[in-house]
Design brief:
Strand content: 35-45%
Order of helices and strands: EHEEHEEEEEHEEEEEEEEEEEEEEEEEE
Structural class: mainly beta
Distance between the termini: 32 Å
Largest sheet: 9 strands, antiparallel
Shape: globular
């Protein structure tokens, strides 16, 4: 209703092309999909794009695909989105929030009309390309109320609220040894109310003259190190300790390679991984950074603003420290059996902040360094988090290699 200014024929077809498969694999690996639907859905509107801000899409999920979803995964909707809001033009797949209706076996979403582009076929028709893939994380099911429209979310995000610039996952460090100056900020796909243009930019571009040192923003393993088929040029993806991932694009030289499943290539926070350039569909030398949280513990699954997380103040979440007088102990910290980080010897570390999934979670700490075989720990919970008994702090002693487990409660947002 009201999607077009005049009568328009809309054609919906399916296809399975190497071109789309390549475009999906170029970026979607950062979301850790288990597999992809064997085909893509194409919505063609001819020479007239939708004039509304959003379109409602409902896709039937085949039984064989539904039955093959791995445990602890959720089917997600991906749509190809032309990113043209920064210093590059990249037509890549983006994860959009959707809900699964178990009774009808359908995926339902309100998608921005920015997914329609007339650059993907020789006829110049406006077309949207959509596919499905399961990714790790929480199960969202269709509620009895109407889902919040994507357009509402986009309009709300424009408002100058105090939470707009908060990090939606764990803090990371600056990815450049020269320091971080944003040249093109993160921007969701919203339509300019005056010009009608849509220029999304789902990452951040940083000032980085050719040859600048690029470093890992957190500990992790190298998951991708290659020349991409799409616009990112030389690209590296790092899967971090807490399951989140970062992508570094338009590189000059990659200094790390992918290991093997048995011997992965590990990197540490601040380690040199590449030098910057303008490889791929770039308009000049710079560094493009994407940040995707781990959907198993964070509310966000799609790309978030990495600039808000760079050197973010660790003022909330879960803080673990050495509570002894010798200050010679260190601990590993797990949330729902996911290693979210380790404390430095004798130091206090806040390991997870902001945007955790509401409900009960299991927090476990393990003494990994305790020279006198007595790892004395302290834990403080912030941002409304509590232990099951309602307290916000705990302390104790662990022998080296031993663990302590707690139930913590994350309030509703």
């Amino acid at each position: 209703m009201g999607a077009f200014s005049s009568d328009t024929q809309v054609t919906v077809t399916t296809s399975s092309t190497a071109e789309v498969d390549s475009a999906f694999n170029d970026l979607a690996s950062i979301f850790h999909p288990a597999n992809r639907l064997a085909y893509e859905v194409r919505i063609n509107t001819g020479f007239q794009p939708p004039v509304s801000n959003t379109v409602r899409v409902e896709i039937a999920v085949p039984d064989d695909f539904l039955n093959a979803v791995p445990p602890n995964h959720q089917i997600e909707l991906f749509a190809q989105l032309l990113n043209d809001g920064g210093e590059e033009t990249i037509d890549s797949f983006e994860l959009f929030e959707a809900t699964f209706n178990a009774s009808t076996k359908t995926i339902i979403a309100e998608l921005p009309t920015a997914i329609f582009s007339n650059t993907r076929n020789s006829a110049g028709d406006f077309e949207a390309i959509i596919t499905l893939a399961p990714t790790p994380g929480i199960n969202r099911t269709m509620s009895t109320t109407s889902p919040l429209s994507f357009d509402t979310v986009l309009r709300a995000s424009i408002l100058p609220t105090t939470t707009a610039s908060q990090c939606k996952a764990a803090p990371i460090q600056c990815p450049l040894s020269i320091g971080c100056t944003v040249t093109s900020p993160y921007s969701k796909p919203r339509k300019n109310p005056v010009t009608g243009e849509v220029k999304p930019h789902m990452g951040v571009d940083y000032l980085a003259p050719q040859g600048s040192d690029v470093v890992a923003v957190a500990d992790g393993i190298v998951e991708t190190s290659r020349q991409s088929d799409g616009g990112y040029g030389e690209v590296i993806v790092i899967r971090h300790t807490n399951g989140s991932a970062t992508l570094y694009g338009h590189l000059e030289q990659r200094k790390v390679a992918v290991g093997t499943p048995f011997v992965p290539t590990k990197v540490t926070k601040g380690q040199l991984i590449a030098t910057s350039d303008n490889s791929g569909a770039s308009r000049g030398a710079h560094l493009h950074l994407d940040y995707v949280p781990n959907g198993a513990i964070f509310l966000s699954k799609n790309r978030i603003d990495p600039a808000a997380c760079v050197d973010a103040l660790a003022s909330g979440g879960i803080t673990v420290w050495d509570d002894g007088s010798a200050l010679d102990d260190a601990f590993q910290v797990f949330l729902d059996n996911i290693l979210i980080g380790s404390t430095d010897i004798g130091a206090s570390n806040t390991l997870v902040v902001n945007n955790l999934i509401p409900g009960n979670h299991q927090l476990k700490i393990t003494a990994i360094i305790a020279p006198d075989d007595l790892g004395t720990y302290g834990i403080t919970l912030n941002d409304g988090l509590t232990f099951a008994n309602g307290e916000t702090s705990a302390s104790g002693v662990l022998a080296q290699g031993w663990s302590a487990t707690f139930t913590i409660v994350v309030p509703q947002q």
